[in-house]
Amino acid sequence: QVQLVESGGGLVQAGGSLRLSCAASGRTIGYYHMGWFRQAPGKEREFVAAVSWSGSTTSYADSVKGRFTISKENGKNTVYLQMNSLKAEDTAVYYCTASRVWAKYDYWGQGTQVTVSS
User: Fold this and answer.
1) Which tops the pLDDT comparison, 87 or 74?
2) What is the pLDDT of residue 11?
3) Residue 1 has pLDDT above 90, yes or no
4) Which contacts (CB < 8 Å, 24+ apart) does range 107-111 have?
């Protein structure tokens, strides 16, 4: 079992930046692909970004390419999502995920709220 706890959310003005963190416990994330999803009010949960277990491969939703960066620090068992040039439409609850199979997410955190004011 992998337990995931997100942090770093908050209120920021449009154009600003935030860095989300996801601390894992129970297993080392060195063996897991890690990802971030988000869910805005009244909308379905959507994929944001993912990084492979080795860190060599990343994937991003078109809506965040060039603005968000996912990274993992295996020594700290932590995954990050650096979010720059934030827009009002980035407002959502952001969830961290972990999986042994790429794009098949088995474990989820409880989420952290990000609110971008325009």
Assistant:
1) 87
2) 98
3) no
4) 107/1, 107/2, 107/3, 107/4, 108/4, 109/4, 109/5, 109/6, 109/22, 110/5, 110/6, 111/6, 111/39
- The CA distance from 38 to 115, in Å, is 12
Q: Which amino acid is at 11?
A: L
The counts of H helices and E strands in the chain are 0, 11
Sign of CA dihedral 100, 6, 89, 19: negative
With beta carbons less than 8 A apart as the criterion, state whether 99 and 105 touch.
yes
